[in-house]
Amino acid sequence: MSQVKKVKYGEKPEKDFNIRTAMEEASRCLLCEDAPCSQGCPAGTDPGKFIRSIRFKNFKGAAETIRENNILGGCCSLVCPYGNLCEKECARTGIDKPIQIGKLQKFAIDCEKEADMNVLKKPDFNTGKKVACIGSGPASLACATKLALEGVDVTIFEQFDQPGGILTYGITPSRLPQEVVDHDIDQVKKLGVEFKLNTRIDGKDGVKKLLQDFDAVFIGVGLWSNALPNIKGVDAKGVYSAQDFLKIARENNGKFDIGEDILVIGGGDVAMDCASTSKQLGANVAIVYRRTIEEAPAYIDEIKYVQDMGIPMITKFAPEEIISDAEGNVVKMMFKSWDNVSEMVKKADTVVFAIGQKASDDYKDIDLAEGAFINGDIINGGLTVVQAVADGKESADEIIDYLKIKEAK
What we know:
Elements: H1 19-26, H2 36-39, H3 47-55, H4 59-69, H5 73-79, H6 86-89, H7 101-114, E1 130-134, H8 138-149, E2 153-157, H9 166-169, H10 178-189, E3 194-196, H11 203-210, E4 216-219, E5 239-241, H12 242-251, E6 261-265, H13 269-280, E7 284-289, H14 300-308, E8 313-315, E9 317-324, E10 330-337, E11 343-347, E12 350-353, E13 372-374, H15 377-380, H16 385-408
Parallel strand pairs: 1-2, 1-4, 2-3, 4-13, 5-12, 6-7, 6-12, 7-8
Antiparallel strand pairs: 9-10, 10-11
Helix pairs in contact: 1-3, 3-4, 3-7, 4-7, 5-7, 8-16, 12-13, 13-14
């Protein structure tokens, strides 16, 4: 019988590679000439190249390869679904098991930090062009980086008091420690990118106003509107959206009174984050998902992680009603099975809905012909951090082309 894992809030469950273990893992690489793993990375991080560098003890070169292609190399080393991307394409899979690309990437970024490397340098020229980025999540950070390297003055506007978007507020710190986020963002700041925090840009009117002072505006605000089901009792005290729940827990460093019994509704990676966070806060936790476990969109390692913590995952039940007491606090929740035959009632002090976020309506109908560009989760519906990085880089290229055309007129 496997022992239940006990992890404190913010504590990482696995140890990172050291030089010996990193070298051992890198030595398993087949050194493919046209590395399929590199083709499997949306952001073009080029795992084949940086693994080869690690294998030959060129740790500096490995860090340079990662950082030059992906400004969020540290964050992505911890939150990327490698099994569905680069590791899935690894040629070693047909022999035994894929190279642990994520852990090798984290090792290279740790070497960068320890050596106080500055891979990306602020250019010694300036185009005189100014671009504003709304939101400071992965897409905006990637877009700002590429623009800054092209000599463009970039200002990022963030509505919260810390930069990072979902990296800072939407992922449990046991999976993504804040120091990793901060280190990646520091690389952006060193390029001269200015951050204006606690500054909300209000939709279409806000974009128009920015375009009076900036040559172009990038909108990478992500998905921050709550998605709650239309069921009775959903407005009770103790009911949270996943983003709000994770944000409050992270802002208060785990000092968050959530009661004894927690229900997390959903089957994605965010639901697993909410469940593991609740367990780390000392609560009894259960995940309830309306489909089968095979249909759950969460990465298999994340499901295994919460199961190793002793968190049950109840499937084939959908939420029906939340029951509250006279003061309006949650006390229990009712569910119905997908065959409409069985019913279930669960005690609950807190209910967290991790059933997806949606884009704000504030940025609908933006005139994209007048220097406004939009990309990232707000467009793709919320895929992965590495995909948002790819989206941000793509928009940066479009903005650079736009600025050149504008200057030529």
